[in-house]
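Person: Please work through this fold.
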Amino acid sequence: MASTNKTTNYELSQFLGTDKPAWLSDYNTDMSKIDTQMKANADAATAAGGTATAASTAIGTLSNL
């Protein structure tokens, strides 16, 4: 049996005292979810940084007018 409960946001394993963890599948599934979300966060941060740079450049251009 895998974990009985899952976390709210990412559905990561949460075990009860009576659970018999399937460590290989539970752990690997959880690590895959974490890795995927961390990559999405990094990509979003990179995109936000690019947007901020473009906005700063546009403000500098407008200031020189």
Observations:
- The chain has a mean pLDDT of 91.
- DSSP finds one helix and two strands in the chain.
- The CA atoms of residues 56 and 62 lie 10 Å apart.
